[in-house]
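Why do we care about 3D structure at all? Because function follows from shape, and shape follows, mostly, from sequence. That is the central idea of this module. The next example makes it concrete: a single protein chain, its amino acid sequence, and then its structure expressed as tokens.
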Amino acid sequence: MKLLKHNMPRGSHIKILLIGYLGADNFGDECMLREFINLFRDCDGIHFTIFSLGTNYDSDRITTAYCPREPFHMKKEYLRALSGVDAVVWVGGNCFTDHDNNGGFFQIILAKLLGKKFYYCGVGIDKLEKTVRIVKSYLAILLADGLIVRDSFSLEKVRDWTSHKEVLWYGSDLGEAYLSAQRNKYRCTEEYIVVSWRELSKNIGCTAQMTIIDQLAEYLVKLCRETNKKIIVFNSDQTMDRAVNMQLLIALKSKGISNVRYAEETTLEEKLEILAAAFCIITGRLHTAVAGYVFEKPVMLFNYSQKIVEFAQDKPSVFMVSEAMVEMGDFQNYLYSSTRNNQHTVSCTINFDFYNRFVDLLTHMRKGLL
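And the structure:
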């Protein structure tokens, strides 16, 4: 961190606009945003504007600019937010995909037209097969002034596209770094079966999602009765996941389970308290699984994406389940295994290679701005 301060001296007065899926009460994106801002905590002269989908982040060094969900008004407000900044940073997440983001193609084009620097930090590439999305992602990466990808799959793809350009890379994402630093701040117990499912209809279809919800409910009924543990359900994404978790709650109650609580409105800290108190965690969200791993909990994680594979590989306590959900039995056996505690080892050392590479990015940014 001293290096960061050295490379961003007093009097720089750089204004940076942060964009992405920010301010939407998404557990993972909030972790990534907090870690990104933490990187600058010892740096003077930097002011952030967060292009937020809802959360107010206003503080001494942060201004909130609100991002409407309607496309026309979003573009209008983005242009307004751009007017007073020196650079734009897309913070974290799979921003190059078929289903969700196309790398902020409009955002980077407009920023470059207005002479702004544009950076991607801690981002990933996931399923990318649609021609239009591939072309937009390719152009966005070529136009970027700096790029840090979060996993080896994304690194390989970016290197194929930008062989002439240095790619700044590290081995884990911003959210994982943030969550690793939280490990000793929460008391770990084994009180609850914690469930935080996710909306998957775009990935696997509505019919398959409903089938999985029913299978999951059947499994949870069995697990709840065998362990005599209370089930807590919360939304890792307050907007996207609310409906699917409500469907799960209805399915559980229809099967006679009353020992369940829906933690609907929770802060990030409250979610971490719940996860630290978990007997096990069942989720379809990456960073919820990361938190479970950090707190040394058995995790059952639905595999719908390359980022899930990247995280879960070589982690004995993280069980990936497929659409058929046939792996639930293996997870059940692990929960009662005598080797469970011996298999789980977590390294919570922050990846300083990332910080060193980020210093390089800051230096590059500073040269372009000052």
